[in-house]
Amino acid sequence: MVDKVTLQVLANHCRAAAENMAYTLYRTAHSTFVKETEDFTVMVMDRTGRVVAVPMDLGATWYPGMNYNRAIDLVDEYRPGDIAFTNDPYSGYLATHAPDTHLWKPIFHEGEIVCFVGGHVHNTDMGGAVPASLSRSLTEIHQEGIRFPPMTLMRDGVFDEKVLRIMMMNVRKPDLNMGDLKALAGALNTGERKIQAMIAKFGAKGFMEGLDGLMDYAEHQAREILRSIPDGEYFFSDYADEDSVDGNPCRLALTLTIKGDEAVLDFTGSDPQLGSSLNVPTGSDPRHTLLLVGVYYVLYTLNPQLLLNSGLTRPFTCIAPEGTVLNPSFPAAVGMRSLTCGRVRSLIFGAFSLAIPERMPAAPAGSSSIVNVMTTDEKTHRSIIAAINPVVGGGGGMPHRDGPNGSGADAAYLKNTPIEITETEVPIQFVRYGLLPDSGGAGRWRGGLATVMEFKVFAPNTRITARNRDRSIFRPWGTLGGLSAEPSNFIINPGAANERVLGNTDIAVTEPGDIIHIHSPGGGGRGSPLEREPERVLLDVARGYVSVAAAKDRYGVVIRDGAVDAEATAARRAEMKQNAHGGHFHFGPERDAFESVWHARNYAALTRLLAALPVHWRFFTKTKIFAAMREAGPQADVTSAFGSVRRDYPQVPEIALAAE
Amino acid sequence: MSWRIGVDIGGTFIDFCAMETGTNRFETIKVLTTPNEPGKELLDGLSLLQERHGVAPEEVISFVHGTTVGINTIIQRKGSRLALITTAGFEDVIELARLRMPEMYSLFCARPEQLIPRDLIHGVRQRQLANGAIAEELDREALADVIATIRSKGVDGVVISFLHAYRNPAHEAQAKALIAELAPELFVFTSSEVWPVIREYERSTTAILNGYVHPRVAGYLGALEAALASRGVPAGPMLTKSNGGLMTAETGKRACVNMLLSGTASGVIGAAYLAEQAGIANVLTLDIGGTSADLALIIDGKPQFGTGETVGDFPLFVPSVSVTSIGSGGGSIAWADAFGVLKVGPESAGSTPGPACYGRGGTRATVTDAMATCGFLGHTPIAYDQIGMRRDRAEAVIGELAGLLGLASQATAEAIIAVAVSEMFVEVNKLVARYGVDLREFTLMPFGGAGPMLGCFLARELGIPHVMVPQRPGVVSALGGLIADVKGDFIQTIFAPSAAESLPRLREALLRLKADGSAWIRDEQGFTGQVIETLSADMRYHGQSFEIEVPLAEPWLAEGDIAAINAAFHRQHLAIYDFNDEAGEVQIVNLRLVVSGTTERPGLTPVPETAAGAAVPERLIPVWLDGANQEVALYHRNALRHGHDFSGPAIVAQDDTTICIPAGFEAHVDGWLNLHLTLRTEA
């Protein structure tokens, strides 16, 4: 009884099942990762493991297009009452770093599997070299915690005690893991009840056909959107600031080809796999969800009625060559892939901006530092570890309005903690928590402002960690004449004699009385700032979002005594128009300087060279070529830099280069 | 002879119910709102009550009303122009809020425009610490400059919110005094006087909402008092609160934030009263109006309370009856997308122009039009004949949509109802999962104008076996006000371990809460009857970021029985989250006291059973139901007597709504003339 006209009824029932699972998990989970960060997902799948429905209220935004199929097939047998699981990034490419534990449960009707329900939680710790199992400095997957290949976790509704004991023995917070696993299993059982109710309502056959209908529907919606985008090839590249601790930039490249109602995302030209944990494991899956998260955002933005399920991935094909940062070979470390995933999203936003400039915003801040403090309470002498606020930046300027300040776009799911709560629990004192003036990219529509957080510490050896730090060098870009935003920074004692500028550093040891300052990047501007109404610039100045100096320098609006000086503004704007940049993107001086050496030709040469080398030589060779290039100065050339590397390291294998 | 009157003011109609003390005679009327002449509808209603039912104004000893004036001020952004003064360095707290935004998949997600723009927010140097100690004195000179600036910008009032003011309100009080001195024309609210709770954003927002609606609410209540006085009503008007209780209109003029969910909350209170009367413990209430549906759970006879309900675009952090509001109602518009899939909402025809069938200018197909097309509506006058039913217009707009879909009109209408019901199905599922309850143990109680139309369809979808439609579904909120208690909430943040060392602070806090509560209910509300104090604490395990409210017994504090306090917390945690940690360190974040003064409940007696067995339908009417044209029995509600039975499919028409009963339901009328509809279970 599911026909097309009433497909929405089934869609709502499936979503209700997903929402129900999400609320159940959220209510019963133990860890702050689930409760606060909402780093979890749940989903309803078809009988092959393709996601058909996800919640819209709770959880992370990464997996509506997920396919569990490869992991499902790695488990030999399924019986009613079973739950299977894995956290291995390299088995089935479901869990994309070791803390993520995915569970799935087959739903039977008359002895046949009609569908699956599943989901993941980010465990606080899975063991391994460092607490929380995540660090940029790790180099192979074995350091990132214990891994379980796809296997049965629950049989006939009973947990496999042996498996649990092995896990609990190897992790640092066994109670939290256990609590979250139970909560997720409980959510899957809730999902099963909801599915059985749907089978009773729609009939098993009607239900299964209906799931196909829902995926066809999402596919149709995605194709309809693609048809509205002009055919063409759109190339874009973006960089993570560092490919490892104090490393070189990590380049990601994308050629987006739109043809009719299909799209190819070719990531060739992205860096080789890294000797840090910034790799993104995708297993050569042409529709791997981590490569498509940016696409979900774009499609949903273009049609907010979009049904989010794996059907919408069908018109897309991804190409990510093996042995590269977006498709690393075992045993590359992958723990901090979320930093790189942020850049993959900006890569996709940039390519779509080229394809449909009139409908896309400028770059969002794109980097959210997750800040933790480890200090000592002077009253109790107890050691305290606490998560402080995430430091999040604004959205990019939109086609019809400014980017939101202090959060937005692909960071909108993050939450903060009240200052009063933190100050009561953690012996630190906030000095400032707010928006950073002049940090949003100037434009016809301004980018959202950055967040700035400053606090004072009191105990010796207080350690500050700030995960996912990026965009301290390469700025969120502006589009269509809009300017790039201010980059992020991490500074101890700003402006004082003992100031330390830490940039992307993710850990700092501080002294009593130190002031810790972290600010996010801002969002990029969209459209020429010279076209922003002077009154709106004046309002920004009155609101403290833009300084009087920046109003003049960036917007050409001269403000005197709280009013726009129309004459001076006209003159200033006329003068600025002469020198206005004309490109689609505005990247800022850092990227311009970098690309004056590392231009397209050098990157093409580097990509060809490294692709020809065995995987274990690539990151090493890249690092050496970068050093040689720096030495060679502004006219540096990759081919000759490679020659000098080869002279220093004759062990570098001979390679046969494909013709250019 | 004397009368008590309850009034609920909605978007389209005002509902009145009047109860005669002693006889318990109960009369209801409904009048159209007059948006252009606020207050007029009230006097109209009083006149009508006198004409029809002999209610003399001078005999009204109690007048309780719920109003949307506060929430509408926020939704329509018609509140006062305010300035905000904060601790320097924290001026952006209200813009950043808790960061997370709605529509998290959209690159165009954005925050609502703030009620106070950033250019009217000023930081002043001063600082309290978490323990209340003053780390930096208030910079009075800088404050004086800020006051001068604010004055020059032309504002109506000022909100002051300093960090940790819940712990030490001294600087807020000093700042308020300075404003009174330098700018006496400005009204001032401080965060610590409005709702002194930890969490700077939540406390600031509460104070801002209060200040934002204050002038309009105070003006409205003043006019109301004058109108009642002009008619010679001796009772001072009372106002229903978000917490389901009452306060005097006089209190409401300053404590405005407490009345934002005025009518909504009293609907749940009214429903709980009706359920208790009928002996039903677990209820899902479904109040559907033109533009929205309000859902709430009554568990074991108790409405659920919480904070964080949304008003307009803003979260509300004062204790409120938990009501989930969804943008789906009788006026929700049906449309078809390019793939040929039928959608309902989120757009709504609202009360103006309303559904096409109301003949007030609506031209698009709504859920109500679908009901009309199926033949459910229009068999008796609607809303006491104040609205004419134009079934032809409904059929025209539904027919247009049916053409696009390639379906027959009636099949389209039925599909619209199915989609609309499935939208509500999603929201109910979320609510149920949040509370971890099993709907099979619940009764659905639909009320409001459109609730009874859709109630059975939703119950069938949810697997709720039992529906109870009150005798007068239109006046449940007004009734809720009539039986509500005078009720005030008091809070003090403790934020300390739940351990013996904290006892002195807890006892001191309790003394203060009791003193404040007593002053409020005795002196301010003038309540002379028996007062009930309910003590509770917001508690959590160390490291958690949210609290749960745990009822406490006063002797536990007096006797220092920390074990009992913690045991109560562990139990409650297990009940809500399915686990607890009895070895875990427990914290008390807030101590709360609710003082309530009981209002005399009308001692309604059931009517004697006068009808046994099958009710006789008025006539058979043709309707489209469950995929077929059927001849269905039409009953008039007024003709249904205690003891009557009948089976679905059936339509019950009454003055304020229509009840649609699909096949499979057995109907029975009880002694309070509630209609009980039970889903037959297939054996």
Automatic annotation (TrEMBL), chain A:
Q: Which GO terms describe its molecular function?
A: 5-oxoprolinase (ATP-hydrolyzing) activity
Q: Looking at the Swiss-Prot or TrEMBL record, what is one Pfam family this protein matches? A: Hydantoinase_B
Where in this chain does the record put each Hydantoinase B/oxoprolinase domain? 3-529
Gene Ontology cellular-component annotations: cytosol
Q: Name one GO biological process term.
A: glutathione metabolic process
Q: Which InterPro entries match?
A: Hydantoinase_B (IPR003692), Oxoprolinase-like (IPR045079)
This chain's protein is named: N-methylhydantoinase B
**Species of the source:** Bosea psychrotolerans
Q: What is the lineage of its organism?
A: Bacteria, Pseudomonadati, Pseudomonadota, Alphaproteobacteria, Hyphomicrobiales
Automatic annotation (TrEMBL), chain B:
Which terms in the Gene Ontology molecular function aspect does this entry carry? Answer: 5-oxoprolinase (ATP-hydrolyzing) activity
Please tell me one Gene Ontology term that the record gives under cellular component: cytosol
Tell me the SUPFAM superfamilies matching this sequence: Actin-like ATPase domain
Describe the location of the Hydantoinase/oxoprolinase N-terminal domain by residue ranges: 4-181
InterPro entries reported in the protein's UniProt record: ACX-like_C (IPR049517), ATPase_NBD (IPR043129), Hydant_A_N (IPR008040), Hydantoinase_A (IPR002821), Oxoprolinase-like (IPR045079)
What residue stretches are annotated with the Hydantoinase A/oxoprolinase domain?
A: 203-487
Q: Which residues form the Acetophenone carboxylase-like C-terminal domain?
A: 525-677
Which GO BP terms apply?
glutathione metabolic process
Q: Which PANTHER family match?
A: 5-OXOPROLINASE RELATED, HYPOTHETICAL 5-OXOPROLINASE (EUROFUNG)-RELATED
Q: What's the protein name? A: N-methylhydantoinase A
